[in-house]
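Dear colleague,

Thank you for sharing your sequence with our group. We've completed the structure prediction you requested, and as agreed, I am returning the results in plain text so they can be pasted directly into your records. Please verify that the sequence below matches your submission; if there's any discrepancy, let me know and we will rerun it promptly.
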Amino acid sequence: MTPETLLNRVSSILDQSGLRQGALFHEASGTHLMRHESLTSQNATVYRPLLCLILQGAKDVGTSAKTLTVRAGQSLIVSHALPVLSRITEAAPETPYIALVFPLDLGLLRTLAPDVLPWSDTRPSDPFSIHLCDTDEEVEDALRRYYGQCEVDSARRLLAPITAREIHARLLMGPHGETLHRLLWHESTASRIFQATRDIQIHLAKTIIVTELARNVGMSSSAFFEQFKAVTGTSPLQYQKDLRLLRAREALQTSSAKVSEIAFGVGYESSAQFSREYSRKFGRSPRKDRELVPVE
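Please find the predicted structure tokens below.
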């Protein structure tokens, strides 16, 4: 199945929605679809475990320490909740950037993994939690069928869940499989770092003590710090700071709370420090950023 077939189906959904530029949550499928007709500036957001297919155009995605370029015909898996920086680098009105994001169900992956043939137990060349490869044609075909099934009520109820299960299974069997298996194996380093990132997210306002995080996941402090940076592309402290700022930005855009209240709510003890770090990351002050939010 050629990339254009899935591209045409996704483009049709975007056309029907009337969206020419931006992101669309496609409720029927539970996926996010993107279309941009021009290049974008750098955007900061949190990626949670997901599959992203680039159907047309290209973008850069990564952390402050490592960036990957993803092009049409390629896909990436994000195995951990990860604060990332991204920007679209290839798009035009006649050939817009088009992509889809399919959230991963880790519980479903865990039930399927025991039935998949063992992957290589050699040390992975790159433990980074973003894995890029050419898109598996079988996964692409399954996604094409999945979107078609989601358009009809009976098929969405009866067939789409089966195809979603197939998509997860094919990811485990395909080139993304090693990355996912490392995450799912409870004794793996990737799994332990996943637990640590989850603890940081749950207790976002709490001051990080690296020795405690390491002890909680059964690692020495030095090994934990090294592996945390290898998997997430950043240190535990920077990871928390990025999450705090992104959580604060979301609150600024979706609530009427005071800037100081939001700062304290995500763990900052000084509103001035929060404003300085926010401005450094997003290029404008919290108040100015809030003023730029479109009024619906």
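Summary note from our side: The two ends are 40 Å apart (CA to CA).

Kind regards,
the structure core
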